[in-house]
Design goal:
The protein is of the alpha/beta class. Helices cover 36% and strands 18% of the residues. The structure holds manganese (II) ion. The site of manganese (II) ion (MN) has 7 residues, from loops.
Amino acid sequence: MPATSNRTFEILGVPFDGAATLGWPGARYAPAKIRDALGWITMRTEKGLVYSLETGQLHSAPTIVDGGDANVIPHDLEATLTNTSQAIADIIGNNNVPIILGGDDSTLFSGSKGVHDGTTGIMGIIHFDAHLDVMDENEAQGAHSQSSGMRRSLELPRASADHSIQIGLRHFNFPSSQAYVSTAGPAQITAYEFDALGTDAAVAKILQRVAGADTVFLSFDIDAVDPAHAPGAGAHEPGGLTSRQAIDTVRALAPHCDALAVTEVNPLTDHRDMTSNLAAYLVYYFATFGA
Ligand SMILES: [Mn+2]
């Protein structure tokens, strides 16, 4: 028997890349491309059912409605963040589960703030990313950018670093970032550790970290995945997760999460939409297995 679906998922596009101050711009085109790719998955629904070749079972097709795009103001980052956060809080207020399609990774903060403002109690964040995103502020990027989303998110009053974890980290970063994460920061599973643990153990470790949070926000910067599997990203960092690992992890985490964001997909650097397609897979697995 297929499982009964009882959550409604609502897509919100954030076609904005004005905070792509270091990486390649182009994420503004991602929501449309991911929606296109998602259409090739949802067209396989028959009589409200979908056949998973991985479980061998028929599943209730997830209820995914499209709430359109956030009111992005291309020249005004702060207004865009505010409008996006409000739209996300409204989705939660309507008892829907937000699926946020970025946009550059300033969407990490607007997503966190929207989930935070739309809920009560402790919020934990599961943050997939090659990068820390804990930049405080600098002249080139300001206080809100694609590099500071996790820092700003953890400053929200009910956000808890003790219930948050970053996955897929690699490459090098500023020593000041080490000072921050070692004192005020969330737990971490580097890309290397993820591979050494394996997906199931990594999932267990993630769920252990967020246990006790009242609300869990899953934010997935597509650059957590290796550029070989996700070339359409805002930055290329070799040595990342495989698409297999990403899909399986999101599938396992979905029932425990109250919102999903997929950020930094960049159609301008993509190859034959393979990264937008991966993002659509993450969305559909999240909704199907998190229903
Ligand atoms: Mn990143």
